[in-house]
Amino acid sequence: MHHARMIRSQLIPALAPSLLMVALIGAEPDPNKVTPPVPAPNPAPSPVADPAPALIEVNATRLDRAPADQPFTYTRLEREDIDQQNQRTAVDALDAVPGVFVQRTSTAQASPYLRGLTGYQTLQLFDGVRYNHLMNRSGPNQYAAMIPDVSLGAVDVVLGSGSTVQGSDGLTGTIDWRLAEAGRGTTDPVTPFGKGRFATAEGYTTQGGVDGKLGQFTYTAEGSWSDWAERRGGDESGDRLYGGNRHDRRIPNTDYREYSYAGRVAWTPIPTARTELSAGRSSQLHAPRTDGYYENTNDSSRISRYFSPETFTYLHLRQRLDLPGWLPALALTGWYHRHDETQIRERITGGRYRREEFRDGVTTYGSDLQATGTLNLLGQQTWTWGGTYYRDTSDNGYLRYQTPANVTNPERAGDVTTSALEDQSTTLPDNSRYVGLAGFVQNDWQFDDRWSVLAGLRWSRAHWNAHVRAGRSGFATDQDVRGEADAWTGNLRLGYRVAEPLLTYAGISQGFRAPTLSDLAGSDLVAGGAFTLRANPDLDAERATTYELGAKLDREQDHAGVAVFWTRITDQIQAEYVDSDGNGTIDTYRPTNGERADLRGLEVSWDLGLKLDANLRLAWFQSTSVIDGESRSRNAKGDTVRTNLPRANLAWGRTGLNLSGTDWYALTQVRWSGPYGETSEGQGADPRHYTVRGNVTSSDGTMPGWWVWDVKAGWRKGDHLRIDFAIENLLDATYRQLGSSADATGINAVLTLGVRG
User: Fold this and answer.
1) 8 A C-beta contact, residue 69 and residue 382
2) pLDDT tens-digit profile of 273-306?
3) Predicted confidence band at 50 (pLDDT cuts at 50, 70, 90)?
4) What 8-state DSSP symbol labels residue 181?
5) 3-state secondary structure 472-529
6) Cβ neighbours of 756 (radius 10 Å)
7) Of 47, 45, 70, nearest in space to 154 by CA
8) Rounded-to-integer distance, Cα 90 and Cα 336, Å
9) What span, in angstroms and rounded, lies between the C-alpha atoms of 193 and 18?
10) pLDDT reported for residue 140
11) Is 194 exposed, middle or buried (0-12, 13-18, 19+ CB in 10 A)?
12) Is-cis flag, bond preceding 36, omega within 30?
């Protein structure tokens, strides 16, 4: 009875806005309107009666061509694809993309791995501008989870070293979280919309807003609220819990709440000019880091670790112009990003109770200029050039409350923070600064209908400055950590269209990544809290070169792709684990430059169907990714030491069948991951790894493989109503995505209702 009441209490608020919208819409859609057949129905955007002008495109490749026509391993998840995945967030939908898997460091913190790397070694963009910042870390970062699903129109994933057009960080790939256009194509003054999702093993989310068009202006105002309950795990997930939660199906410290609100306005006075303004805010409340609790780690010294609040605020202003005659098309973007987080840690250390509060903020101001012009010489040449500038500034604070010696009662704790202690303990030195500057040029040369060459060159420079006080981990004296790094990077790709639907490509691309201040001067706990970070101010920049061969087919609803790659990273920044106090136990993580690292892999995917009649299609879809990674460094004796790259030796994917009609679909799929056996140093002490083995406090770091079975179905009525239903993990298996701190959900019934006026 209690479980039924809980479901009702979550289902009603999740679906209430959508049910209200159904009542408000009332009238049937226009009977003369023809609904185009689609395999994965999506009611969100209305058809565009007055198409937006064909202005310059600002995206991860700086090319104004469809992803299927670009010589990259390039996947675009349209809004329709994200909705059919019917996942909790858009980040979770990335698990369907070849070459990508998502690690959930906690249920509130998602970190996409691109070809074996994550954190600051991959690049995230938000609507075409840089989302990475000076506090990004080597391990998983929570920032991807702060992108609000309600605001997204698509997600682009471009694999391979991508520094030529986007700059520092993209050693193995780039994700571009793309905002939905203002108005979402409506021609009405007011078009309301709403959506609710309820999941029996997770909780609920609800979102809604209004789109509109008023003369030369289009606009969107939207918001969302999510109440994520404690996750219900698989049939054996209780064996991986401790204390009073042992054998409980509900996984503690996986619940949190989040909200977002945003608005977008576009002004198009003439077809060749458009001004776009976007602003929004998203926030997570009391979001636990699951590996900070005894119940989830079997470590009795860990009391709690959570973020409250974690907030992202943004403002983007973009001007797009298509100038007359021989003049180029222009896009000028200015942006403001602000990340704020307050992290609370409670633990027993040295026989005392200790509570720490880390208050961190990062402010980013940036501008980006992109110009594109066409030259009809020896075929068609499309030249793109421009530059980027950004400035990150941090503000950091720290508080410590602690009991007297040999006292563990939290009520006896008092504030012991001093100015010196705060300076030594902040996540970064307060008022740290990081500045980036770059210029680029790229030529997309179409020789004829079959051959094309894409060539680009970029100069990038990063400069950093942080004042460090003596006593900070890794620093014996006060000093200014100052430095800079610059590099020229290039990109050369050849495309050959074998036939109209089939494109083959080969490419050599370079990446460059200047070290962030997290490694140069940071202080943190890493590897699930198992080790203390000791900063290294003498790090060099990393450089990567990717060699790639691929082919992709795009014909109506049929899609297929295959790519093989090899990425070599020189001066790769890697972990060195140290016994800092000489007691025989490794307790410290120190970033250092290794000799090199190599990543090799294969990605194969397809969605190929048979037309059973004019409106009925049966498709077999699958994706398979295989990654192998190894690094090399020199030890104190000068010998070469080979080690596995963390979480870069894995095979994973999904496969299934999809039967779809004009306004419905039904699919079944199996998601799977091979075992993780080629571990790296330090993973045996990481609770995210050892807790899969049950009642232990360490392991060899390996993780078992898994597979789960899902069924999904959906239906829509015109553009006004959409219903999606899924049963995930139908066999109630217990499994954990590599590197995640809690098991995934067990059997999970999901109902989503979307409406649009």
Assistant:
1) no
2) 999 999 999 999 999 999 999 999 999 999 999 9
3) very low
4) P
5) CCCCCCCEEEEEEEEEEEEEEEEEEEEECCEEEEEEEEEEEECCCHHHHHCCCEECCC
6) 24
7) 45
8) 23
9) 8
10) 61
11) buried
12) no
Which pLDDT value is given to residue 37? 40
In the block, residue with structure tokens 């980036």: 436
CATH for 445: 2.40.170.20
Average pLDDT on 464-490 reads 93
What radius of gyration do the chain's Cα atoms show?
26
Report the residue count for the chain: 757
- DSSP β-bridge partners for residue 706: 673
The DSSP-derived string for 388-425 is: EEEEEEEEEEEEEEEPPTT---GGG-EE---HHHHHHH
| CA gap 425, 416 in Å, rounded | 13
Name which of 10-19, 61-70, 209-218, 477-486 the model is least confident about. 10-19
pTM of the model: 0.91
Other C-beta atoms closer than 10 Å to the C-beta of 102 total: 24
How buried is 202 (Cβ within 10 angstroms: 0-12 exposed, 13-18 middle, 19+ buried)?
buried
**Range of the structural domain that residue 568 is part of:** 2-756
Residue 751 CB coordination number (10 Å)? 18
Strands 531-533 and 573-578: unpaired
Residue 530 backbone dihedrals phi, psi, to 5 degrees = -80, -25
> Measuring CA to CA, how many Å separate 626 from each of 130, 544, 565, 605, 606?
28, 19, 11, 12, 16
Minimal CA–CA distance to 540: which of 491, 490, 595? 595
Residues 6+ apart with CB under 8 A from 419: none
Distance CA 624, CA 281 (A): 36
For 714, the 3-state DSSP assignment is strand
For range 598-605, the mean pLDDT: 97
Give the burial class of 718: count Cβ atoms within 10 A of its Cβ; 0-12 exposed, 13-18 middle, 19 or more buried: middle
Tell me how far apart the alpha carbons of residues 163 and 453 are, in angstroms, rounded to a whole number: 18
**Residue 416 backbone phi and psi in degrees, to 5:** -115, 15
Query: Smallest Cα–Cα separation from 261: which of 224, 212, 313, 228?
Result: 224
Share of the chain above pLDDT 90, in %: 69
Could you give the number of structural domains in the chain?
Answer: 1
